[in-house]
Design goal:
heterodimer; A: 263 residues; alpha/beta; Rossmann fold; six-stranded mixed β-sheet; four-stranded antiparallel β-sheet; 14 strands; 30% strand; globular; B: 366 residues; mainly alpha; ABC transporter involved in vitamin B12 uptake, BtuC; 15 helices; 2 strands
Chain lengths: 263, 366
């Protein structure tokens, strides 16, 4: 599992994230939500080992700041918010880069087929020969997810769960592909891996997340199950908006309907 | 002029997945190797002596001197004058082209080139310091290192320039193209100004050496020069393929390369040292030969794609071929005199560079 305790991050002398306690369990999707600038991405970068931090972040018993890149690469794969590409690679070549660490978790002979299978998962069958830079934003994001999936194809390796870190994985996708991507995340968790994802869509969060961490001005405003966390008062306080939180007649999944900007 | 045929390519590459250009790249490398051999042989036999390529080959493979098909004069011309030139040309061409490709991967930009961003100028400053001050201020350095002093000083000059450039142009893992080019211009200007001071201090004999050296020429190629600068270039050339995968990952950005398990900092330092060594050594023996580092990798990316596992060896082969060819032209075009090779590469490379800029207008935000 992932356990973060009292994590603070400073960027250029300014405290962006302070005192976050966080945990993510194998078999679950942990969602981080919060308004723009609340420190979500900075916190995820601390989990990924990109930024130095105070406090502790432990993945599968190992402190992140003490891990070599290759060791961390075997435990988690990271989908950034946006990826800029320097040279004209094909989709196939991009997705194959996910296999660089050599820890996909399938037999060596099967690696050859993984890019194709990953592309099929993200609904990009037949895109392997296209040039990445010619694709739409949403398609590029799905290509990057296919690359990330190749890196940790087996959700459990050598008896240890592995993790997907997704920073707004569905932000530029249409509804169908939002569901496809979130289903991939859920499937990864069901098979024993863990998912940590930043999301903006509270309804999608309510549908898919097992735990929600609500960030507000760099700190944790609330944490728990969607039903426990999503309330009118919390949302108004954190997002500065009036929303109506209800429960679908079919079950206990809450939904959130925006009403107006808070007065 | 990006090739759109890859998606549907079948037949020869039927077993390969769509978008996988590795088979094509391997074929290109084999063809380039054959081309290099052919051009080297042509260059060995082209010129004032009338020994044919066929004669030279027969001589090469004949077992004893007695049945030699070449005259003694032709043997000297081929083995002691032309062969060192061809070998040195190949080494320098390969070193410059691979250095260009590595720098472009490192800076994540197709416009990075040792000549453009000031690394060559920095290496030049190092070399000129040894030529002018070797007998006086730098005497301990030159006596200690002997013939290695010149390439080593060029290496140090190139290394210092690259490190400064990288520090200035990179913020939090992102390299700004505008800053890189502007910093390169500033560093070039500074290096050239200091070089100018040294030239001002030089005596008449040093001046003549300097002028020829600055224009870039393979005319002074000897086995001794190959012996001193060659190993440095060879080590750099042999080391560079080892970070091809890392450079591939780096094209997704430094953070993502790290997420994939690449030791990004280490990769950057080794690559910078390798480029500085290769460029420094080549500048030390042949002066400033521009544009090979930018033209060759760019041409290859258009045909075999940007995968550095293939791009680096292919760049070495094509760089070697082009420089030998340029040297052959430089010998022939105003025979029996010869034109400095740097003039040839700049005359061809300058317009080519402009063409890249025109094509990339709007694609690269400067």
């Amino acid at each position: 599992m992932i356990e973060a305790h009292d994590v603070s991050v400073k960027l250029a002398g300014k405290r962006i994230v302070s005192g976050i306690d966080f945990e993510a369990h194998p078999g679950e999707i942990a969602a981080i939500v919060g308004p723009n600038g609340s420190g979500k991405t900075t916190f995820l970068k601390a989990l990924s080992g990109d930024l130095g931090y105070d406090g502790s972040v432990v993945i599968n018993g190992r402190e992140v700041s003490g891990m070599r890149p290759v060791e961390a690469a075997g435990m988690r794969a990271v989908l950034p918010q946006a990826t800029s590409l320097a040279f004209p690679f094909t989709v196939q070549e991009i997705v194959r880069l996910g296999l660089i660490g050599g820890r996909s978790g399938v037999l060596a002979g099967e690696n050859e087929r993984l890019p194709e299978r990953a592309l099929a998962k993200v609904d990009l069958d037949g895109f392997a020969g296209r040039f990445y830079q010619e694709l739409s934003g949403g398609e590029q994001q799905r290509v990057q997810l296919a690359r990330v999936l190749c890196q940790v194809w087996a959700p459990v390796l050598d008896g240890r769960p592995r993790y997907l870190f997704l920073d707004e994985p569905v932000s530029s996708l249409d509804v169908k592909h939002q569901l496809i991507i979130m289903d991939i995340a859920r499937d990864f968790a069901k098979r024993g891996g863990g998912v940590v994802t930043i999301l903006h869509d509270l309804n999608l969060t309510a549908m898919y997340a097992d735990r929600i961490f609500v960030m507000h001005r760099g700190s944790l405003a609330a944490a728990g199950t969607p039903a426990a966390v999503l309330s009118d008062s919390l949302i108004e306080k954190v997002f500065d908006c009036r929303m109506r939180v209800g429960v679908l007649p079919t079950g206990d999944v809450p939904f959130v309907l925006p009403q107006s900007v808070a007065l | 002029m990006v090739d759109h045929s890859i998606a549907g390519s079948s037949g020869l590459m039927a077993r390969k997945a769509a978008g996988d250009r590795s088979a094509r790249a391997r074929l290109a490398i084999v063809l380039l190797a054959i081309l290099l051999a052919a051009v080297a042989l042509f260059s060995l036999t082209a010129g004032a002596s009338d020994a044919s390529a066929f004669d030279a080959l027969r001589d090469w493979f004949s077992s004893s001197d007695a049945e030699s098909v070449l005259s003694a004069r032709d043997r000297i011309i081929i083995y002691d004058i032309r062969l060192p030139r061809v070998v040195l040309g190949a080494l320098i061409g390969a070193a410059l082209a691979v250095s260009g490709a590595v720098m472009q991967g490192l800076f994540r930009n197709p416009l990075a080139d040792p000549g453009i961003v000031g690394v060559s100028a920095g290496a030049g400053l190092g070399a000129v310091s040894v030529i002018v001050l070797g007998g006086t201020a730098l005497a301990p350095f030159t006596t200690l290192l002997g013939s290695m002093a010149l390439p080593l000083a060029a290496f140090i000059g190139g290394l210092v320039t690259t490190l400064i450039l990288y520090q200035v142009a990179t913020r939090q893992g992102r390299t700004s193209v505008a800053t890189m080019l502007l910093a390169g211009i500033a560093l070039s200007a500074l290096a050239m100004a200091l070089t100018g001071v040294l030239i001002y201090m030089a005596d008449d004999r040093q001046l003549r050496d300097l002028t020829f050296w600055q224009l870039g020429s393979l005319a002074g190629a000897t086995w001794t020069k190959i012996g001193t600068a060659g190993p440095i270039m060879l080590i750099a050339l042999v080391a560079m393929p080892f970070f091809a995968r890392g450079l591939n990952a780096l094209s997704l950005g430094e953070a993502t390369a790290g997420h994939l398990g690449i030791q990004v900092q280490k990769l950057k330092y080794v690559a910078i040292a390798g480029v500085s060594a290769a460029v420094g050594a080549s500048v030390a023996v042949s002066g400033g030969i521009g544009f090979v580092g930018i033209v060759v990798p760019h041409l290859l990316r258009l045909t075999i794609g940007p995968d550095n596992r293939y791009l680096l060896p292919a760049s070495a082969l094509l760089g070697a071929t082009l420089l030998i060819l340029a040297d052959t032209v430089s010998r022939a075009i105003v025979a029996p005199a010869e034109l400095p090779i740097g003039i040839i590469t700049a005359t061809v490379g300058g317009p080519f560079f402009l063409w890249i800029l025109l094509r990339k207008r709007g694609v690269i935000d400067l």
